[in-house]
Amino acid sequence: MLAFPVKKEKAFSYIEEGEGEVLLLLHGLFGALSNWDGVLKHFSSKYKVVIPMLPIYVMPIRKTSLEGLVKFVEAFIELKKFESFTLAGNSLGGHLGLIYTLKYPEKIKRLVLTGSSGLFENTMGASFPKRGSYKYIKERVEYTFFDPKTATQAYIDEVFKITNDIPKALRIVAIAKSAQRNNMAQEIVNIKVPTFLIWGLNDTITPPMVAHEFNRLITNSKLQFIDECCHAPMMEHPEKFNRILEQFLQENITT
Questions:
Q1: Is residue 97 part of a domain?
Q2: Does residue 125 register a pLDDT over 60?
Q3: d(CA 188, CA 175)
Q4: Does 134 map to a domain?
Q5: Residue 70, domain member (yes or no)
Q6: Residue 228 lies in domain
Q7: What is the helix, strand, coil percentage profile of the chain, to 5?
Q8: 64 - beta bridge partners?
Q9: What are phi and psi of 181, to 5 degrees?
Q10: How many Cα atoms sit within 13 Å of 150 on the Cβ side?
Q11: By C-alpha distance, which of 103, 46, 43 is closest to 73?
C-alpha cells in the first residue's frame, strides 16, 4: 500500500514529495513505486523525491525494450524540467540509470546503483515465466530476498497476476532479453560522476562479483555491501540503506 499519492501528468504516473534537490528513483522489472517507500519516507523531508512508474506492461510491443524505457525516462525528465539531480536505480532501474548517465552526464550529480543489471543478471524474466504455477512464482519471488518473508503475499499475488497475463508476460521477456543483450562493460568506464554501489551481500540475481566489477570499471565509485540482504536492499534493510545513502549524499555535495 502506497503511503503517498500518485500524480498523473500526460502519459506519466509518478510520486513526487518534498522540496529541494531532486532525488530520482527508478524501480526494476517486477518492481513498483512502493519498492522505494522507505527511501521516500526518509528523504522527502530534505529532498524532492520523484519516482516514475515505468510503463513496462503497457508499452507498444514493438517498442518494448531497454531503448524504449530510456526514451520514456528522457521524456519524463524533460517534462519535469529537471536540470541537475541524483539518479538511483534498482535492478533494471540501475541499468536505465547507467544509460541515461552516459547520454546526459551534465545532468547527473550522483549515481546510485543497487542490484543493477548492465553487466550480468540471473533473472526470471529472460525466459517465459511458468504461467499457472503459483508455487513456482512464489519460489522465484522469494528467491530475490534474503528473508523470504520480505515477499508479502500481496506482492507474490501481483507478480503471479502479471505472469498470467500473456501480453504483460511477453513484455517482461522482451525487456529482460533486451537488458541481457546490453552489456555495458565497455561503456561504463566513461562514467565520471560520483557513483555509489549499495549491494546485498547475498544477492542471487546480480551476485557480489557483479558489484565488484562495477566498482572496478567505474573510476569514481564506492561500494558498500549490506549483509543478510539480497537483490533489493532498500526494501530488505531500509534503515541501513537510508543511513549509508545519506552519508554518501552528504560526502558528495555538489552545486
A1: yes
A2: no
A3: 20
A4: no
A5: yes
A6: 7-121+181-251
A7: 45, 15, 40
A8: none
A9: -70, -25
A10: 21
A11: 103
> How far is C-alpha 57 from the chain's CA centre?
16
pLDDT band at 130 (very low <50, low <70, confident <90, very high): low
pLDDT for res 197: 98
pLDDT in tens, 134-178: 888 888 888 889 999 888 898 889 888 888 888 888 898 889 889
Instruction: Check whether 19 has a pLDDT greater than 80.
Output: yes
Residue 126: pLDDT band by 50, 70, 90 thresholds?
very low
For residue 106, what is the domain's CATH number? Answer: 3.40.50.1820
Q: Who's near 45: CB < 8 A, 6+ residues apart?
A: 18
E strands, 166-244, where?
195-200, 221-226
Total domains in the fold of the chain? 1
Strand ranges across the sheet with 7-9: 7-9, 12-17, 48-52, 22-26, 85-90, 108-114, 195-200, 221-226
Residues 6 or more apart in contact with residue 189 via CB below 8 angstroms: 217, 218, 219
Report the distance separating Cα 36 and Cα 241, nearest Å. Answer: 11
Identify the three-state secondary structure at position 217.
helix
Kindly report whether the global pTM for this prediction surpasses the value 0.85.
Answer: yes
Q: How far apart are CA 232 and CA 37, in angstroms?
A: 12
